Amino acid sequence: MEKLDVYIELHEGSMTPAYANFNDAGADVFAAEDMVIRPMQRLVVPLNFKVALPDHIEMQVRPRSGLSLKTTLSIPNSPGTVDAGYRDFVGVIVQNTYNIANLPYEIAENPELLGILSKYYTVTDLSTYFEAQSGASDMEPGFLDSCLPLFRSLGPIILDQKGNPYGTIYLEKGMKIAQLVFNEYRSAQFIPVDSVDTIGYNRGGGFGSTGQK
Hints:
The chain is α+β, with helices and mostly antiparallel strands. It is built from six helices and twelve strands. The strands form four sheets. A four-stranded antiparallel β-sheet has the order 1-4-8-6, with no helix packed on it. The protein is extended, with a radius of gyration of 23 Å.
């Protein structure tokens, strides 16, 4: 099968996408720098390369099955699309979907988790924590004090030795983060009509019409 010519411009920290096996549909892409993704945080992982795609070709950014199964890292806009006319840097939108509310159930399922948690520490004074994280100099005077009732209602935060909440994901430079799949597409020409019911076959139904009631 003839391969698709995709021109790539590599920058600092970037790696050329690579197919792990013969006949793989997706080419792995790699994080260009170390990153910290806290629970529920959403950000862009830079790949630090640009591509030039042929006309009528889209480059889809899809999750890797291993990361989706074994971690709480997700690609919320999956599949992301890189258009043929795009010439800027390519990145991957990711989100750490970990929810600390699930922790008691995780411990019940795997009591050995308590041994891991013994290496963490608990912060009960959340005003001190948020002050350190946000920088008091950037806040209005008295803002933290006014939030004390809210801080007390939130309860403690479990932090690792780097000061990040339990459930934080640490990405290392060069880590496989997603995969690229290339597809041919056709642009549409939209033709206004009075009714589409008589054009082609109308099967009827809508969302969930053939599924569970």
